[in-house]
Amino acid sequence: MSNEHTLDLHYVHQSFQRSLKEEDDVVIEAYIDGYNELVKFLNLIGSVFSFVSSDVKSKIKVMEKHREGDDAIYYESFKKMMKYEKETCLHEKNGFVSGSRTMLRLHRGLDFIRLFLKRLSDSDDAVNTCTTCQSSYNETLAEFHPWYIRKAATLAMHALPTRPDLLKKIFGTEDRLTEAMTILPQTLQSCDEVYQRVEQLYTDFDFHGLP
Questions:
Q1: Domains in the chain: how many in total?
Q2: Could you read off the pLDDT of 13-25 as tens digits, one per residue?
Q3: Is residue 3 part of a domain?
Q4: Which Pfam families does the annotation name (predicted)?
């Protein structure tokens, strides 16, 4: 894995590829490995998304407890987890921290990260990163946030640097940036495949509306 000051897209790609199970499932441990690396993207672009990345850390801790507990066997993959919590009605139990609900929050965050990264890679250096970030946020995470968080987030996006400076901040040296841009399409494809599988599972188990 890369150091904390740069984003390693190769590691994200490998982790998400490892997470793909059978034709329609996703392994939770490998998903979290890739997500942990990918969330550095939020940390590296500044404090604007610190509220998201700090929430991610707490969610991952919840999942670590599930995967180390007595029912760990049911928390190996998304499909197993959702089937278990649906059949036992655990997702409705007071006081129980549902893994399905917890991972839904990470799933929504992945949608924003992959969209913003894709638009950054597709644009030229003259693009307004603030506008790109705002549109990506408004199309994904914004609908799940209360108005005061939406307002604070969209205002903070005005502090984002230009595209060249932002990419340098995320990937480091010019050589690392060139390497990252080469593997980015593959990484985004892996993100998309993982996202679509998990999205379908939440639809199949009718879990999109978990509170």
A1: 1
A2: 999 999 999 999 9
A3: no
A4: GLTP
